[in-house]
Design a protein that fits this description.
Blueprint: H1 2-22, E1 35-38, E2 41-48, H2 50-53, E3 61-62, E4 67-74, E5 83-90, H3 101-105, H4 110-113, E6 114-122, E7 127-133, E8 138-147, E9 154-163, H5 171-188, H6 191-204
Parallel strand pairs: 3-9
Antiparallel strand pairs: 1-2, 2-4, 4-7, 5-6, 5-8, 8-9
Helix pairs in contact: 1-5
């Protein structure tokens, strides 16, 4: 029974890791965390903070509350022909990595949450760039919309990022996994029974 409980705890933690990897909205899970899907189109999305971080590239975690330059490198030949608009909104609903296009459509006052909007334009050079100076730290959601050049259809990418907050990465999950494994080992080796026995002896004494 103890081994079964330990196995269940381990599977639960593995499920948490899988959920974190899969719940990035339009961000593609994998080694390249800055790769986004705009419908069936892909682009490499990075952020620079030239005044404070020189040429260092950032993706989901932007360290400083300052001017940030967003650069999207097109990885599909159709993107240079499409009008692209870019919007940044405050993540007031705390959707985080789970944010998707349906969440954006459900927002009643999108303009009220918008801190930056760059209207549709065509960039033929193979990449898109925009600049915005943040005024406060927090969690934000970026929305990229690409209009098909010949058909009446749009493609969207939605992904979150942090500004002015440390990136803990997966360390909290690793710590939780280690604690649960230790707890499972202690339980499976009679640790709980020994603890109960000590308590019984103390009461009798």
């Amino acid at each position: 029974m103890r081994k079964v409980i330990t196995a269940i705890m381990l599977c639960s933690l593995c499920g948490l890791f899988s959920a974190q990897a899969a719940a990035h909205g339009s961000v593609v899970p994998g080694a390249d965390r800055c790769l986004i899907n705009i419908g069936f189109l892909q682009a490499h999305f990075t952020v620079f903070q030239p005044e404070t971080r020189n040429n260092t590239e950032f993706c989901e975690n932007i360290p400083d509350v300052t001017r940030s330059v967003f650069v999207m490198e097109y990885l599909h030949q159709l993107l240079p022909q499409m009008e692209i608009d870019f919007r940044i909104i405050k993540d007031l609903d705390r959707l985080g990595r789970y944010a998707d296009w349906e969440d954006v459509q459900a927002i009643d006052d999108l303009e009220g949450r918008t801190v930056f909007y760059d209207p549709p334009r065509i960039e033929e050079g193979g990449y898109y760039s925009a600049s915005y100076e943040f005024e406060e730290r927090g969690t934000y959601i970026a929305i990229v919309t690409a209009q098909h050049p010949t058909e009446d259809r749009n493609y969207n990418a939605v992904f979150y990022f942090r500004v002015g907050r440390p990136d803990l990465g997966s360390w909290p999950l690793f710590i939780a996994l280690a604690l649960l494994l230790q707890l499972g080992y202690w339980w499976s080796n009679g640790g709980y029974k020994r603890l109960q026995a000590r308590r019984t002896v103390r009461r009798q004494s």
